[in-house]
Amino acid sequence: MTRWGMVIDLRKCIGCYSCMIACKQEHFLPPGMFWNRVVIGETGTYPAVTKQMYPVSCNHCEEAICVKACPTRATTRRADGIIVIDSAKCVGCRYCLIACPYQQRTFYADDNTEYFPGQGLTEYEAIGKELYPLQKGTVVKCNFCAERIDAGIGKGLIPGTDREATPACVITCPTGARSFGDLDDVNSKVGALIKERRGFQLHPEYGTDPSVYYIT
Amino acid sequence: VTALTVLADIFAFCVIIYGGFAMNYVNGIPLWNTALLPVLYVISGLWGGAELTLGISLAQSGTMSGLPAEEAVRILLPGFVLLIPVYLVSVRYTSSTGRASVRYMVLGKWAPFFWLLAVGAGMLLPAAAVITSVLAGTESTPEALLYTAIFSGLLGDLTTRYLILRCGLYNPLIPSPAGIDVPVGG
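ok -> structure tokens follow
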């Protein structure tokens, strides 16, 4: 069984925000909405200050709390481990948004936002509304670029190896900090990285078993 | 007692317990993710309901003496008053976020609401009315005090619930060696 997952090398991440922008472009996200974020934190006191860059997005948890919390079963876990939201079923109660301990969900409240307020939609926004329409009043989040994965597999490509079948944030990262692949395949690149570099998940104490691992 | 009343009672109880259990499920917020929260919500719901029943009874018939709700209030009030500090102290020792949430409620921005409305109006005033009614008898207790206690009790109950919702802080998303998470960007 395939379980898509991601490994992020924190030593390689330089906090350039390319992944955030790539995700935004890929899904034509409106102003102010990010499915992929880079959280930058500082620890210590001067002169021994450490800057930490943590790219975060939906963790596509094996034991996803959002799936259990959704009263209408709009949030589901696919057979390949990707957590998706059916906007036709979502009633916008936002319980999943609160229940997600990683705070990686966004409520799409207003579909009238424009990148240049009062000047109408740009060509990019107009295309986006046709190609990737978001349903107003529903919860949205990262979907591991499921549409790229599905289309790529349909063409016989391998996600994580072939660019066309790999999430946008992974192929855009200029330092190659992100790797994507099948977590259930011990011989895959992600499996090897987790094993060799002792990959860790965010908040394993929640028992959610995220599909996004970090290595340092 | 009709079948409809029984059905209504069952559904009312479900409504009372739902909130606590739904919030308890959110494991990223220590203030909510405690086994005491559903209990607190049940006690709080019953306490508010009993007060409302007494208020309506007092307004309609001018008396509330001998009503089951009167006895219920006398039992629920001490339970509610004792449960709040137990709940807050238990959350305080769960994690640093739990401690921050409690501090946010009790000493931080929401402290005036907590001490004046939740504690003062929601616990002390009703406690004064209950003690007076126990010592002097319900019939001898001034009606104004009873009305004030019922109103302030409901206000305090709702404030307590609001504060629990409002002061629930998430655990920091990213781990930090120093235990401090200071996001500066992203």
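The first helix of chain A runs from residue 18 to 27.
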